[in-house]
Amino acid sequence: MSWIHQKTACDEGFSHHVSNLLGLQSPRDERSGKARNNRKLEAGKEFSTAEVYRSRISKAESFGEVWEIVKDTVKDSLGEHRVGMMLFLDDLPLHLGAYHPLGTNNIVLNRTLVQIVEVATKSKRLVNGFVYSLLVHEYLHALGHIPEAEVRSLVYKISRECFGEDHIVTSLAEKSPWALLRGIPLRGIEAPRRAMEIVKDFEKPNQRYIV
Q1: 54-79, pLDDT tens digit by residue?
Q2: Strand partners, 27
Q3: What's the pTM value of the predicted model, to 2 decimals?
Q4: Helical H runs in the chain?
Q5: What order do you get walking across the sheet with 98-99 strand by strand?
Q6: CA 85 – CA 18 distance, rounded (Å)
């Protein structure tokens, strides 16, 4: 899995508290849910669009896999598509999740915030939902949707249509990705300043890049 890992002790009670903020499943419940979904797949159940996207976001193992879900959901919901994007990781101020420099094919994601969510929740599903929420927001900017109010509304529309009302992605779209960070003393966290890095294999091969 190509997420950023940080071996830091995390109180299980606090992780449960973070999950409860949005009425989310505990990791144990999440595993049980996955087992039920697997049994449905084995039984040959035909999944709806929402179930397919829920399964994909739960199983995604890299930024690139989440990115493919971002592009597919935007295309399904809005009929818009763009190729050749590049993802960079940087240690940004903690109030900034990501940004897209207008006129480029670049998105810069806050590496420190991803680490914090990963350590605090210990849940791939929550990390994936968090990353999806940040990336889809910046992707919409890259597609030409500039006003923040418009983009937030579109993120909620896409999330609701593609994942359903009761999914983590839709909850974060409605309440903001920072809902996962409530109760975490961000002001007391001093992240080391590291060099910006590019995420390799972010787009599928044979795409055209314009920087």
Answers
A1: 999 999 999 999 999 999 999 999 99
A2: none
A3: 0.77
A4: 12-21, 27-42, 49-59, 63-78, 111-121, 124-142, 148-163, 168-175
A5: 98-99, 106-110, 86-90, 197-198
A6: 32
